[in-house]
Amino acid sequence: MRLQLALLSSALLLPGCSRSSAPKPPAPTAYGIQIAEVSGGKQVAAVGSALPQPVVMQVNGADGNPVAGALVSFRGEGVDFNPAQALSDASGQATAAVRLGSAPGDYQIVAETPKSGGGSAAVTLRETALGYEQKLGSEVNDKYCNRCHDNESTPERVSNFDNLSPAPHLYTDGATYNRISDADLLNIIARGGPALGKSPQMPAYGSTLKPAEIKALISYIRAMADPPYQTPGVKYGK
Amino acid sequence: MVVGPSLEELLNSNDQPGPLRSRPSGRELAIFGAVSLVLVVSLAIAPAKNYFSDWRHLQKAYLKLANDRQGGTLVRNFHGGIRQTWIPSLGVVDRCETCHVNQNGALLGSAGQPFRKHPPIPHDLGQFGCVLCHRGQGAATSVEEAHHTTEAWEQPLLPARYLDSSCGQCHLGALPGAPRLNEGRRLLSAMGCVHCHVVAQPDGNVMKPDDNPPPLVHIAEKTSREWIFAWIKNPQAYAASATMPNFQLSDQDAADISAFLIAQSTPSAAVKNAPPTAPSAQPAATANPTEAATLYGSLFCSSCHAVQNAAGNLVGGNFGPELTRVGSKANPDWLRRWLKDPGQYEPDTRMPHYRFDEKQITMLSGFLLAKKDDDLLSKVHLPAANADSVVRGKKLVTESGCAACHQINGVNPPQNFAPDLSRVGSRALSQIVFVPGMKHNVHDYITAKIHDPRSFGPALKMPKFNVTDEQIVALTTALLAQTDRANGLPHELLLSAERKPDYHPGGDAGKLMEDLRCLSCHSINGHGGDMAPDLTREGSSVQRAWLEEFMKNPNTLRPALIRRMPKFNLGPAEIKTISDYILSAYQAPGFDSQTLDAHAMDTDAAARGKQLFYSKYGCQACHIADYKNDKGYVGPALAGVGNRLTPVWMYKWLKDPNALRPGTLMPNLNLKDDEARDLAAFLMTLKAKQNGGAK
Questions:
Q1: Which CATH architecture has domain A132-224?
Q2: How many CA within 13 A on the CB side of residue B23?
Q3: Over 90: is that where the pLDDT of A69 sits?
Q4: Number of Cβ atoms within 10 Å of the Cβ of B634
Q5: Domain range spanning residue B672?
Q6: Which chain A residues touch B162 with a CB distance below 8 Å?
Q7: Are the beta carbons of B247 and B235 closer than 8 angstroms?
Q8: How near does any CA of chain A get to the CA of B121, in Å?
């Protein structure tokens, strides 16, 4: 029953990607013993969207040197890869474009390569898909908050992060944000830093943003946290 | 010996016709059995189908999960069977929740599909049903039929990347949180799609182009036939950012079109009004390259025009055309006349009329003409134009629909040149000619059509646009919003796009502001650009001395900004005309001399204000009141603001910034009246060091 359910739900998850004939995997010409991420993890995109950057993996041999011609397979529930399987190039790297699934939240992407002596080496990356509410939050954040909260400043969109003291924590700092409750987040955004005994350089937005926008911001901040934010309350095992 | 009929004979005797038989034969029995079996089986099919249906399995699976997690109440409250949402006014009959039983999240914890909780959206789920947004077959009761294209039903689920399109059925203007839809609609205008295609929205609004294709009626003055040839063969070879599509013309066609375009060109007002001995000096010789580059930089031409740098990246705005290779295009005499007064050549241009002097014109044109790419035209050798090629060129121009975008002498803009796309999102699959191997659904069709129109047939007219894959997804999203359903929705559901009034300032000042193209960048009364601050209430905001000085010598208020107000070389009379107008016409209601008690704004108030500025509200996080200590580079610098803004404006602004400039980044800090007054008193003490604007 459980298997049937899993099959059914995966059928539902992948309405758009039911390819009639999966392309045959290329035959590996070499084997490595270890696989590592070069780039492409921890990206953020809207549900159903391609990640801004491809994921790039590297296969290494026993001597720690890159291995060319090793098979790298990518998989992830609801995620579409192009290509799903590739041979590593001369520098030992394999690249795939990634399109996230239709549900907001975190996606685990596994890149796997068969090892020379049998078995395989794998590495897991995390990517995040934003649903409507988080997208709205990210827009509000881009407009109002990133002027101080973004640690990167460009001439087109200046951020004052480097000049702030104390500087805000980056939203990716899960260790900090996961300890702040929704109620406190709402409090500091609506009533400013002093509401939580923090710096007044964090302004109050309660009279500027609509409640739905603040809710969306919180939803977005939660989605950015690393390690991921867990909703408090009852937890059920898998 | 056996007497009488044997057993065999007795059995066989049935074969002989007899008047009455009491027992059916074996064969009859067999037939009867088979027929009844078929009957029973066929009677059982319906209940069995029902019993073994997808949804029953799923509901059972859900109950098990619910029992494991929350036990009693959830299971007790569950009503099995087909569940349906019926909303007659929207034409929605949805049975999706028969399987998707946990949309409202009654089941605690995470669950995979079909039991995942619906992510939060600003609508009540029951209010609109499912198919309005997700498409698919709402009435279906099997997984396959509900989600995929089948023979009988042709509406598959909409892939998540196009979901924004569904919002666009009611939300006809920009919608926060739906970036794809907004971007797609912007592109329909900015790429000029709607020059040829009609895209009418359900409220009757017809989308308008926003790409400003130049008129070609005087083109022979501006450039050469060789450049036209190279450009129409491949616009992006000249300017990577060009929106002009590629018509995949043959050399012969491009040669004929260029011949015609040169032939149809007539003299512009700039040439007609030019003094007979126009200075045809060799500008490059007299211009000092570094000085010219400095001038180009200090005029902030790059606020609107981009140039490719050595790394191949475009640097600068995209409001005007890219200038990377302008030296290969522009005729030097034309360029001088253009810089002198662009409106003489193109009355509707967005480029302002700078009051450049001869020296500046020489420097700028020399600087621009040096931006050359010799490879662009080196291989273009055209046979001399003759009457035949001009005639052929005109025919090609007419057939290709060039006049849908460009003004061309002797060719009228074509009407209904391309299919109407007002309802393309619901186009029936039976009406679509698919390329072999293509998936049969509307979204893949639209995507393929934009990606490579000629793959549907080499004779098709639609050109190939220079768009990225993500832009194609956005365009498809915007087009998928154009549905039959949207046109049948109750009118109160439609939220129209904001319509921009066509405001034009009047009088002498209005004429001057038109000449300077102020509204290319600034917006007034809802009309104009968004590159620079809205001026609707500028007259209440600034002090006269500052305004006049600023127009003479514009300094930036935001130190870190790369876009700046250019210097127009305005004369004192011009500055007075505009200042008078701004200070009297662009006043905000409720701003008068009684608003603030001037006596209360004393040194004590200023001292309290300073305390509020630095300690209570941390304004220095974004603003600089004192260049020595403050590092807020986000908002405008406030050092010298006491010379710039009026106290009443400061007070009202601090109380509610959004009321004065909707959409401003400045938050409403919910200040009390006396706090706002004290802050204004402090700000008024921040005087500029030298007389002049804030630097």
A1: Orthogonal Bundle (1.10)
A2: 6
A3: yes
A4: 21
A5: 593-684
A6: 48
A7: no
A8: 6
Please state which of the four CATH numbers 2.60.40.10, 1.10.10.10, 2.40.50.320, 3.30.1490.20 is assigned to the domain occupying A34-130.
2.60.40.10
Q: What is the DSSP letter of B647?
A: H
Tokens of A133: 């509410």
Q: Testing the interface with A: which of B303, B634, B661 to mutate, by most A Cβ within 10 A?
A: B634
The pTM of this model reads: 0.88
CA–CA gap between residue A224 and residue B186 (Å, rounded): 28
| Neighbour count for residue A184 (Cβ, 10 Å) | 12
Q: What is the mean pLDDT of each run of 10 residues along chain B (695 residues)?
A: 50 52 82 89 78 86 87 83 89 91 85 89 90 90 83 80 96 95 97 96 95 95 96 95 94 96 94 68 61 86 90 88 95 95 94 93 94 90 92 96 96 93 92 86 94 90 94 97 94 90 91 94 90 91 93 72 78 95 92 81 94 94 91 88 94 94 92 94 86 40
Q: Which conformational region is residue A78 in: left (phi greater than 0), alpha (psi within -120 to 50 degrees), or beta?
A: left
Complex prediction ipTM: 0.84
**Which segments within B384-441 are labelled E, that is strand?**
none
Across the interface, of A16, A133, A159, the residue whose CB is closest to B119 is A133
DSSP string, B241-280: T--PPB----HHHHHHHHHHHHHH----HHHHTS-SS---
φ, ψ (nearest 5 deg) of residue B348: -100, 15
Residue B623, CA distances (Å) to B238, B383, B678 in order: 42, 63, 17
- By CB atoms closer than 10 A (0-12, 13-18, 19+), residue A47 is buried
